[in-house]
Each structure stands twice: as C-alpha cells, then as structure tokens.
Amino acid sequence: MDDKQLEKLQEELLAQVNAPLELEQYIKDISDKVAFELYASKKVLIEFEDTQYLFKSRSVFLNEKKGINIVVADMVKFKLLREKYIPYQVTVEIDNNFSEVENLRAAVEAFFRHVTNLVQPEEIN
Asked: Which candidate among 91, 104, 106, 107 keeps its CA 20 to 30 Å from the CA of 26?
C-alpha cells in the first residue's frame, strides 16, 4: 500500500466514525426545532432523511399523571394507504423537573432515534 491508498483508507474510516456523530447532532437539532413548533402550534410538518413527517401532540393523563401523546405520520405511507395506515405513537409521562418543551424534545428525539436505529444506551440503577 502506498501513501495515497493509506490516506484514502483513513478518510473512509474517519467518515464511518463521524457519520453517527453527525447524525446524533442532526437529531438533536431537528428535535429542538420540532419541540418548539409543537409547543407553539401542536402540529408540525417536517422533512427528515427525505421523508415528510406530520407530528401532532396533545396532553394526556397516564395513571393520574400528566403526559404527552405525539402521533407521527409518514406522509408518503399515509397518502398511499389512507385508512389502513397506522401512524407512530409516542406517549411519555411528563417529568416535572423539565419544561414542557424539554419533555417534547425528549419524546421527539426518541422517535428519530427509533427511525434511524440510533438508540442511546442508558445506565440502569
């Protein structure tokens, strides 16, 4: 292997390492945007990885505690399947240590992580 091949291999490896980190930052940024818009209007249409998603949120009660229910529709699948389409649902209990926007952001971020298969490991106590 010569220097050019080694340099190309190094760039490819760095791109593979950096791709999840860039996706991670993109998910955080877009989750912030969606959370603020959901807080303001309860309905957001956004494009993520070449797919349009419609988010709708509402307040719910879970075991006598306040929660948030977010329904997320993939607009392409919705238009194709109509009544047969079952949208994603994210339901979370509100953590009172955080604002409503922060709770929305966490739920939206969990959805995007699920869609991209970029699940963060958590510490279990």
From this structure: 91
* Rounded CA separation 107/120 (Å): 13
For residue 125, give the 3-state DSSP assignment.
Answer: coil
- CB neighbour list of residue 28: distance below 8 Å, 6 or more residues apart: 109
Report the 10 Å Cβ neighbour count for 62: 13
The total of other beta-carbon atoms located within 10 Å of residue 43's CB is 12
Provide the residue-wise pLDDT of the chain in tens; the chain has 125 residues.
Answer: 677 776 777 777 666 666 677 788 889 999 999 999 999 999 999 999 889 999 999 989 988 888 899 999 999 999 999 889 999 998 888 888 888 899 999 999 989 988 888 766 554 44
Alpha helices (H) along the chain: 3-41, 75-81, 100-116
